[in-house]
Amino acid sequence: MINVAIVGSGPSGCYIADMLSKKLDGAQVDIYDRLPTPFGLVRAGVAPDHQGTKNIIRQFERTFSRDNVRFMGNINIGSDISYQELKDSYDVIAITIGALNDRNLGITGEDLSGVYGSGEFVAWYNGHPDQADLNPDLNCNGIAIIGNGNVALDISRLLAKTAAEMGSSDITAEAASAIDSSPVTDIYLIGRRGPVEASFTNAELSEFAELDRCIALVDPAQMPASLPEGIDPKEAKAIEKNLDTLRAYAANNADSKPVRLHLMFCASPLEICGSDGKVSSLKLEKNTIIDGRAKATGETFELPVQSVISAIGYRSEAIGGMPFDSDRGIVSNNEGLVETGVYTAGWCKRGPQGVIPANRSDSMTVAKQIMADLEATPPAGNKPGSAAIDELLQARSVKTVSFQQWQTINEAEISRAVDGKPREKFNRISEMLELID
Ligand code: NAP
Question: Cys-Cys crosslink for 311: which of 87, 117, 147, 395, Cβ 3.0 to 4.6 Å?
Fold first, then answer.
């Protein structure tokens, strides 16, 4: 038997588990997650109103149901079980823990009440137990969202949609109610570079064209007359599509709906200003774009916002003893190899870039590498696998959540949902453990 441990049950981990459990002779694949719930960002990162993206879970469920695959939920590698203990027990380890920690803006005022990172904000509305108590202050008229990626668009859209528009989503009841009762009238989505350099994709950008209560706006003066020279033709097509959408937004009437989404470009946050410890405004500096790079002009302006959400990327978290590149916030690796027998894939390998299909192909590459390495150097066959880990967990009174027990939690979430929602998530680990006890 070849004992394989996968740390992290998000898409990257699931794809490696799928391939190794099918293609690696004699493989026993154990998938660890620190939560009692599997599927990582598919459950707690993908926007709750993008239910179609979550359909991939059905494929992962088939992987978890194989005889040679075991889900070991509610186990934190690094605290419940050490990295060394895992290495002592398994022939192969794949680290697929994603990138959950928010990158900092590094400006004054970031510690004020009313400032959130997209990681914590998204986790909150998606019912991730880490942020069950975030309770963000949305009792404000103006909210700034920093960043021009799809995460910034997700957050803007969720703040802009009505309760009816979120009706078939699985946003938590608490988050839905907080957003619904927010008096927000102006959402500012701020990119430090221009519309040409924005990293959001057109399907997501276009969703603002038809919202019930929110109108998307762009200052026509910020729209380029044409594309700069030298852009790759494939990329140019995608950019042109975004520019068309933005031009349509530039022609919108600001008074046509009660909530305005201002897509603002070429501005970098300078300072989050506060009064009584809370956000009172955001100071920005205008940029010009030279050869695709933002260059500060020295000209500043201020936005009347009472909340700031930064959506500027993530860092992975180090596990004690595991090689970690602190500068980049990723697991140290050479093309996916961390050290003998230990591999990594997904956002913790490459940084927080790419949608689920991109992570699938990364996981396939790493899984193939694992199989090639095992063929070249077969394992000694003396690693005990989960038997040793089970003993340690028992001695430490750590409760493992199995896939079957997750299915009990899953069914309970589905059956307690009301008003056409697909599920009402439990966002506290204690609630989930009580349920399966
Ligand atoms: P992203 O696409 O890399 O966007 C990050 C944004 O933050 C960029 O606009 C970047 O600007 C900006 N930024 C970085 N540092 C900054 C700073 N100090 N000040 C101001 N702005 C700063 O990342 P993401 O939005 O977090 O998304 C991560 C990945 O998940 C992406 O691949 C995304 O496509 C994917 N995703 C997809 C979906 C979907 O398909 N619906 C939804 C969510 C996420 P610069 O470009 O100037 O660096």
Answer: 147
